[in-house]
Task: structure prediction
Amino acid sequence: MTNYESFEYDVLVIGAGGAGLRAAIEASAAGVKVGLVCKSLLGKAHTVMAEGGMAAAMGNVDDRDNWRVHFADTMRGGQYVNNWRMAELHAKEAPARVHELEAWGAVFDRTPDGKILQRNFGGHKYPRLAHVGDRTGLELIRTLQDHGIHQGITVHMEYTIVTLLKDGDRVIGAFGYDRERGRFKIFRAKAVVLATGGLGRAYRITTNSWEGTGDGVSLAYHAGAELRDMEFIQFHPTGMIWPPSVRGLLVTEAVRGDGGILKNKEGRRFMFDDIPDLYKSQTATDPEEGWRYVMGDKNARRPPELLTRDHVARCILREVKAGRGSPHGGVFLDIAWIKEKMPSAPEYIKRKLPSMYHQFMQLASLDITREPMEIGPTTHYLMGGIRVDGDTQATNIPGLFAAGECAGGLHGANRLGGNSLSDLIVFGKRAGEFAAKYAKENSAGKVNDAQLEEASRYALEPFEREGSPEGPYQVQHDLQGMMQDLVGIVRRQEEMARALDGLKQLWGRANKVAVASNREYNPGWHTALDLNHLLTVSEAITRSALDRKESRGGHFREDFPKKDPEAQKYNTVVWQGKDGAMQLRREPIPEMAAELKQVIEEMK
Amino acid sequence: MSKQVTFRIWRTDANGGGKFVDYPTEVSEGMVVLDVVHKIQAEQANDLACRWNCKAGKCGSCSAEINGMPKLMCMTRLDQIPLDKPVTIEPMRSFPRLRDLATDVSWNFRVKTKIKKFNPRKPDASDGSWRMAQADVDRVQEFRKCIECFLCQDVCHVLRDHHKHDEFIGPRFLVYTAALEMHPLDTEDRLPELKQACGVGFCNITKCCTKVCPESISITDNAIIPLKERVVDDFFDPLGWLWKKLRPKT
Ligand SMILES: Cc1cc2nc3c(=O)[nH]c(=O)nc-3n(C[C@H](O)[C@H](O)[C@H](O)COP(=O)(O)OP(=O)(O)OC[C@H]3O[C@@H](n4cnc5c(N)ncnc54)[C@H](O)[C@@H]3O)c2cc1C
Ligand code: SF4
Ligand code: SF4
Ligand code: FES
Result:
């Protein structure tokens, strides 16, 4: 039997973004031994890139806000297929989690009376996002990191998990390698928390980094866990599109929250042309009212640029398709126009959106205080993910928990901006708490040698395929192109059926890719191993999207463009069958608690 | 419009040594150095090691030396550097080399754990929150912009040339300490360590760190010099220091 270096923990947390760090801190505070694994260096996870803010109904800027409004907004945004228990807990607990960050050293922007300042964002009725300029994610991750390093957590940076270990039905640890040397490691743990983030890398145009390959979702799936809502992918309406090398980079929604407007090449504010019924009563009727809203007039309603992301993204596509787009195939996002309204506009923009100013100046040689930006939709966020219990974040596999972007439910069919960062801290905490509890109540499981052997054999195969015609990058590239074209923002039966065939072929190619050189810090090898995850999640997205024959939130079917009231009653669930093939069912959504139903009625 | 440019990249070999290897590469409008590295990785050298995450100057992963200048590869546009001769890309020199462009920066993470953590005064309100004026947090927010790229550590001669890694925490962690010390809510006293373990005295204010900081943090003027002043004040006038430290918090 091979001798791999081995570590032993009560709770192993996989992923060191906001969710993983918060889970690790909580588990550690509960007095158990905690290990934390992440693919990059500490503090570099996706969370660091989040810009706009985190949603919490503290009511610092508008005292009409409270958890009930936040709950109703989240459900409306998610088009009512959310896990309503999660939406409830999230709305109730987010303010306390944000205050806790302040106790750990976070320094949010302030209101004139010295409280945490909150900003407007799409789909939120009142200004609700606690923020620090447009670098809120950095503040969140650094606060958790700087607090966490004093909590006795053991951090394994630049380690990648390739398989979850099982003893019977239960998850009892994980198996992976370190990037530096490429050596295999065993992590035994009584409970495992997955906090691995999203899967934007399944698409060609995305805001996600190399890490966003859906690892946790795929690891859970292969360990027997159920996935839900995988058809709901968020395409963020405003990504950079020019020059080509920055295509997909996020332009924060805060640009629109702070007064930015969308225009087509004719200069028309096309967002006024199509306002969904669900939002008519909350949306401004003319530009003047929209501007008053941005400036904090409590009697004004939101400008249509702040409608939910799925809708804005589709309106942009409509303009482009109709030939009214910008030179490089997007539309214009204009914040410079506010100089008509305020003399100090350039200073205001630079203060409110410093990193956007910087990003465009440096990467596109464009001064956003003077000129409009060219933008278009980009793959951003996975609403679906691992199916968990709302209170405990436990999956259907004993010993396995999940939190953050890799877990599904809170956001339903569409996530509101700012609801992710708050998701991370609310449910990261809960996952840590209940994983620690589970670890205290259970003894360690037994590692199965055969599973280890199989996992290491599989991982090393790419080195042995000499003479193979293909490296991993080509397969990855073709997969991304196919998902973008066939299972993207606008979907059709026949295209998705083609995608399923395409996936079969890509699996075949992935199983043949060869990598050169040795195991030390070899990105080619890592990309080859990630293909398994990317293909798994792509299949889950495609099958779920094929099954949902309606349009809702992030899932838009050209062949079924309307919402189907019947389809509001279930979630799509996929899992791996005994024969290895992906299974799918429609899981009825449990009846909502009466009190919550009433909240939704009142907020209509 | 595309053209051919040669990139001269540091590649390590199996026995810990290394050499520069030339990669002639097709480049096009708007590309940054990190795009070039990715292109070479995809087309010519699948195993070329480098770190990156955000591609937008937000995560501080892609630090390297481009034509000898410490920079973020993702924020260095090709039209800012001469392309008529080979462009060199090499790892940061102040840290042990791992492979190709990746260096062992673990020392930085160890240093941070030794600095006393944030310790706030009691909350001002019953919901566990505090009141702070924006003007009082501006400076701290400047320091908290740090993306931990460690380029300032790379360029500081105390570390780079004199290898004082055991005695000097470097500009990054002086900024970190300054952020804690100037945090309006903090009640901890880090002054004794500043003199001893942090080695603030090693800094002779060359300002090289400030020049390379991609976040434009005024490392020397706003963080290091005030810390040095506090250390000196404390030495001559411990009560004066105490008064200064307590005043903004009342
Ligand atoms: C550019 C951008 C801007 C955003 N802006 C906002 C915003 O303003 N407000 C908001 O609410 N949300 C925003 N989001 C969304 C939000 O940032 C993310 O959804 C959230 O940060 C995800 O956090 P996480 O903790 O779930 O995972 P991540 O932060 O993605 O972290 C995942 C962790 O898992 C690790 N990992 C993954 N796979 C493995 C493996 N196989 N083995 C070991 N470790 C692994 C990674 O290394 C990483 O540490 C933004 C996202 C992006 C990309
Ligand atoms: S100013 Fe001080 S810390 Fe900065 S580079 Fe010079 S010696 Fe180093
Ligand atoms: S202070 Fe500036 S240069 Fe130094 S690590 Fe932070 S961001 Fe980088
Ligand atoms: S990749 Fe994040 S700073 Fe360059």
Chain A is about 35% helix and 15% strand.
